[in-house]
Amino acid sequence: MAMNLQDYSHKRYNILTGEWVLVSPHRAKRPWQGQEEAVVREKRPQHDPNCYLCAGNTRINGEKNPEYTDVFVFQNDFAALQDTSPTFSEHRGLLRAESEQGICRVVCFSPDHSKSLADMTPEEIVKVVKVWKREYHDLGIRDGINYVQIFENKGAVMGCSNPHPHGQIWSQSSLPNEVLKKDNRQAQYYREHQRSLLGDYIQQELELGERILFENEHFAALVPFWAIWPFETMIVPKKHLVHLGALNDAQEAQLAEAISVITKVYDKIFDTSFPYSSGIHQAPTNGEENAHWHMHMSFFPPLLRSATVKKFMVGYEMFGSPQRDITPEQAVKLMRSLL
Fold first, then answer.
1. What's the whole-model pTM score?
2. Which domain CATH number covers 221?
3. Closest Cα to residue 12, out of 324, 319, 280?
4. pLDDT in tens, 88-108
5. How many folded domains does the chain comprise?
6. Annotated active-site positions, please?
């Protein structure tokens, strides 16, 4: 099986979404004459007077940031969701629309404008983890908030509008599409087995060791068997934990350590500040038990062959299904060599 998966086209099943990804190992040898992104090697200052996220600076709405010294959270000045949106439902034949309320916040990871998570220590990152945990709780207990999505877009190539180290939190009244898929798949498995789907999966991966990048006592970081992006990774608690609120101090510290390891390895792959989108999927805040959920954090980086060649989701990916060239096993082998 292992030889077939490294040499021949095949598809792999994503147990969390019920979808397939096409894997084409032989295509990695093809010549490349497509678009190459410009490599940005700017050296940023620790404080940029023109950055609306830096400590002490004034944002576009006229509010002044405090002189924060570690993690700073504020309401997004250009929120995609409104908590003042009226409740409505519009159906006209096949045309359907429903209102969506929510609250969006920005989380500045550090006052140092020059840093990314890869430049921060685990001790600095754990402060971010604690804020994520607090925000998940504070937003989740509000009436009408049924899901809290924590994420980060790093790098201009990922659409990040500001290089200051920061992420976002979008909380809303319904479950987003990707979360709904995972909610259904995990609930079905839990009903049938009375065990966590990801708990059983991570145990199998730990026994095989083929795609594990890093592990500590409480977490495993790996390239998922069904990974779509070239160097996609996922951090999974070894113990069945449904959301961030279940983490104790030791688990918070070890999640921060895993994030530090992954982001530092990324920057070494092509000797560049590696762009990615990362996000945490965890139990909804809809007042239900949600025992079937197993929280996890995913990193989706687009770089494929070098710091200038990006993986594009076009053509077959748009009209058929996701597709990748290098296998997850090849990707994790390269990343392990950089630890």
1. 0.94
2. 3.30.428.10
3. 324
4. 999 999 999 999 999 999 999
5. 1
6. 166
